[in-house]
Design a protein that fits this description.
Elements (H helix, E strand, L loop, with lengths): L5 E5 L3 H14 L11 E5 L6 H5 L8 H13 L4 E3 L9 H7 L7 H10 L7 E5 L2 H6 L1 H8 L3 E3 L3 H15 L7 H13 L4 E4 L2 H10 L1 H4 L3 E3 H13 L10
Parallel strand pairs: 1-2, 1-3, 4-5, 4-6, 6-7
Length: 242
Amino acid sequence: MLLKRVGVLGGLGPLATVYFMDMVVKLTDAKRDQEHIPMLVMNDSTIPDRTAFILGKSAESPLPRMLENARMLENAGVDFLVIPCNTAHFFYDAVAEAVKIPVINIMEEAVTAASGAVSGVKAIGVLATDGTVQSGVYERFAKSAGLRLLVPEKEEQEAVMHIIYDEVKAGRPADWKKLVRTAESLRQRGADAVILGCTELSVVSRDQELTQIYPWMVDSLEALAEKCIVTAGGRLRTAGRQ
């Protein structure tokens, strides 16, 4: 079986990149090494913070390093790229234009997965960084899918940012129960499904098996991993999310 080679533009953050690789391996229906997806990974943790730049709190743009890494992966011979970071997709168009190979969009895949998570989805919620929320990129994809998008209230958003930056990125235990409460609050306000739209939240979900406990919860990193496997020509171990 001839599989396509995926280039992973990672380091955004480093742990989420490792979890993405683990997901690709575990979600691939493979009975031997040669049936797994070949990945070339650039886990560049030195890329400047995406949210800080988007919100105008930093003048240091992540884009030059992202473009450098994307071109390096392309020149190394990968067939397509993935970026296991939602906030970094603020720069998606620039990255896609800088290379000649396809770049899978994590937000598009997450919205697609959310629209089929439960029956009759009309509105979705998203838990993400301030940069992702304020950029409005998820809202664009939700609108294209005919869905209404809900985001957390101010205090809830602050709690999400605390989990992302002060817990997961800082290497500390994450308050997953607070994450679930925030997701359930979006459900109470009308969201039929809730996207974990930050790959640090995907780390929490994977550790606590949240998407198995809450079928209406969609892990954007898992949606990206599944699309990556299919695009590379591999087989999914399960038809749905684990």
